[in-house]
Specification:
By secondary structure, the chain is α/β, with parallel strands linked by helices. Strands 10, 11, 12, 13, 14, 15, 16, 17, 18, 19 and 20 form an 11-stranded mixed β-sheet that branches. It has a 6-stranded parallel β-sheet with strand order 5-4-3-2-1-9. The structure holds alpha-D-galactopyranose and zinc ion.
Length: about 700
């Protein structure tokens, strides 16, 4: 086991999920039956108490832990562990009735009514105090209970509050950062439209009703929201840790496509990364695309701490909040869990164990449905996952996913792109660009880390920084060192335009823009209407390949770079579309337009040929089959082969493998039925070879 166990008190693959017994207090027979069914489904852990505040503290300072004591005792007797939540994600009526300030204020200045969840003011001293009181009680009572293996802090942190308390904290954050209004006016470029600040009180959060034209403000507000969320989360962590510092803490993230918070910063405060994954399997765009999208998010979650993570929630079958609640087809549930484990998950946890009888989540599937039996398709498939995880525990748990490739995905860069007016207000598809870059590696079983601009790049062979509009945290220096030391860097269109405050870099070929490393500088960025394109032509081995660039194209001024491909149309006909520059021991490439996946596939094929990137398997992988690997303790590859396509596949092999589920050995060809998987261990080479 390369990594220390996520949950040292119970170092095993976790199987379980959110359990909400407080909804079933009037049904004692159901609570009894739940535990029997959990055992049957090989559930070894539940997340408890996430939304239990009203049942733990029904009135201010009146506490009732009897039902929770009982629940934990009964679970523990059955050998089921507990990830205990702090209940701050949703509050009881009395709290909001008495202390209005805990309710959030919206961007237009109106205060919320009571309702919903994950919508409290993070600054409110009253909310922090009430949370501290209940967290302290839980921690004193349960932090040393043998069943409790981790803390689940709050639930899916998200959102922002525009109340006076938050505004005051925002102004303090800015004073701390800029020191003076002169500096702030400069760094936000506020001497613009006469918006110069002459007094700190004039600073308001961005609002469509007020100031939304200063992009430095938009960025700093989002940074403040992350800071304030972390501050709140840390106060909870301190409380629970003070009772027993050995119990690890986590909170449930929402994957890569949630861009409200900077998860790379939050990750530093947590012992375990955990996330809630709800892909739209069987959507009209097909499972192959869904699997790729999902794998990317798993990779980012693993990269946050370069360690295995917990899949904290996923649905056993349907998701009630998707546009359509489609059932997972037979086999899909186990396949989707294998995909999570393949990318670094050390658990399969569900929302939820017992399906709600009423309210908003009654149509969200659960391990135990309204039928209340073991005799449902979903229950059986969950049981199958439980059996599989038991088999995997001894050789997969805690193993590493070594990566030679990193893709830079930086949420602060996304904030900056989204806030920017121009060069294309009809959409600049940053997520799409990341996906198109990721495709080659996903398809070929090459592990990629997904890192932000604060990363250390020194251990990678290849770093790709798609559409990195905002250069921050001295990334130019890190890229310069990386390439000079022999690394290969690829940047794409709309990169290195602004600094961390969204101020454009000045000058022609400057180090700030990384022009020395790239061997060129960008003179113009052309926005293309939907449907517009500019063809590029690329000579490779005496054949000419054509690709259509869309959305954004750059007019490039080469200095020392080679021009690898050129644009074919318009006034920048003949100008570089792909450049390559030798710098120190390494190379820096640039793609000067929004390129299709096929262009990136070809570019990375060439780089891969040169760099000889480590693959899960040395084999031709059919379309729709994904191969991924983790490294077993003795250095061998544990290979996860997953067929997301609608055809059975046969993969010709160059090495021999043992199927860790069936025990079968494969040396020549590996059959993988559609919507099925194999988990293989590379066999050691024979002595006589
Ligand atoms: C989120 C929440 C859960 C539940 C699920 C339903 O992930 O954390 O409480 O509402 O969604 O999919
Ligand atoms: Zn507030």
């Amino acid at each position: 086991m390369k990594h220390t166990p996520l949950t040292p008190k119970f170092p095993q693959m976790l199987h379980g999920g959110d359990y909400n017994p407080e909804q079933w207090k009037d049904y004692p027979e159901i609570l009894e039956r739940d535990i029997e069914l959990m055992k049957e489904a090989h559930i070894n852990c539940v997340s408890l108490g996430i939304f239990s505040w009203a049942d733990i503290e029904p009135e201010e300072d009146l506490f009732n832990l009897e039902w929770l004591d009982n629940t934990i005792e009964r679970l523990w007797k059955a050998g089921i562990h507990v990830i205990l939540a702090t209940p701050s994600g949703a509050r009881p009526h009395w709290l909001a009735d008495k202390y209005q300030e805990v309710l959030r204020v919206a961007e237009d200045g109106t205060r919320n009514f009571f309702g919903g969840r994950e919508n409290h003011c993070y600054t409110s001293p009253v909310y922090r105090e009430r949370v501290k009181i209940i967290d302290e009680l839980l921690a004193e009572h349960y932090a040393n209970h043998p069943a409790v293996i981790a803390w689940h802090i709050s639930n899916e942190f998200n959102g922002e509050c525009h109340c006076e308390l938050c505004k005051k904290a925002f102004r303090e954050f800015l004073q701390d950062k800029y020191g003076s209004l002169e500096q702030l006016n400069h760094d936000w470029w506020a001497h613009f439209w006469s918006h110069t600040y002459t007094n700190w009180e004039q600073v308001q959060p961005p609002s469509s009703k007020g100031e939304d034209s200063i992009q430095g403000l938009v960025l700093d507000w989002k940074r403040f929201v992350t800071k304030q969320t972390i501050d709140f989360m840390k106060s909870e962590i301190e409380t629970v840790k003070s009772a027993n510092s050995e119990i690890p803490v986590t909170t449930n993230f929402m994957g890569m496509y949630f861009d409200g918070l900077d998860y790379f910063q939050m990750a530093k405060e947590l012992d375990i990364i955990a996330w809630d994954s709800y892909p739209m399997w069987h959507a009209p765009w097909g499972n192959i695309a869904v699997a790729q999208c999902e794998s990317l998010s798993h990779d980012m979650m693993r990269s946050l701490k370069k360690s295995p993570f917990l899949l904290m929630e996923c649905t056993p079958s349907t998701t009630n909040w998707h546009s359509v609640s489609k059932q997972k087809r037979p086999g899909m549930h186990v396949l989707s869990i294998v995909n999570a484990v393949a990318h670094g998950a050390d658990s399969s946890m569900y929302f939820q164990i017992r399906q709600s009888r009423g309210s908003a989540e009654k149509f969200h599937s659960a391990v135990i449905s309204h039928a209340g039996t073991n005799n449902t398709r979903t229950f059986k498939e969950v049981t199958e996952v439980g059996e599989l995880l038991q088999k995997l525990t001894h050789f997969v748990y805690g193993t590493d996913s070594p990566a030679e490739v990193a893709i830079v995905f930086d949420v602060q860069n996304k904030w900056a792109i989204d806030a920017s007016k121009g060069p294309r207000n009809d959409g600049i598809d940053y997520f799409g660009e990341i996906q198109r870059v990721y495709h080659y590696f996903w398809k070929n079983g090459i592990t990629t880390d997904i890192v932000d601009e604060t990363a250390d790049f020194s251990g990678y062979k290849l770093v790709i920084a798609p559409m990195l509009y905002m250069f921050r945290d001295d990334i130019q220096k890190k890229f310069r060192e990386f390439v000079s030391a022999g690394g290969t860097l690829v940047t794409t269109v709309f990169s290195g335009v602004v600094n961390q405050n969204d101020l454009c870099f000045l000058g022609e070929d400057t180090e700030e823009k990384l022009s020395d490393v790239m061997g060129m500088w960008v003179e113009e960025i052309d926005g293309l209407y939907d449907g517009d394109k500019n063809r590029t032509s690329w000579y490779i081995d005496r054949t000419r390949l054509f690709y259509d660039m869309t959305q954004l194209c750059e007019v490039i001024r080469p200095t020392t770079c080679d021009v690898v491909a050129t644009f074919e149309k318009d006034y920048y006909k003949g100008c570089p579309a792909i450049t390559k520059n030798a710098f120190g021991e390494g190379f820096a490439w640039h793609v000067a337009g929004c390129a299709p996946e096929a262009l990136f596939d070809e570019l990375f094929r060439q780089l891969d040929e040169k760099l000889q990137l480590e693959r899960a398997m040395d084999a031709e992988i059919p379309n729709g089959v994904s191969v991924t690997w983790r490294q077993s303790d003795d250095g061998r590859k544990i290979v996860f082969v997953q067929n997301f396509s609608d055809c059975d596949a046969l993969i010709p092999l160059k090495a021999s493998y043992t199927d860790m589920v069936t025990g079968n050995k494969f040396g020549e060809a590996l059959p993988v039925e559609k919507q099925k998987f194999r988990i293989l261990l590379e066999n050691p080479p024979k002595n006589d070879e």
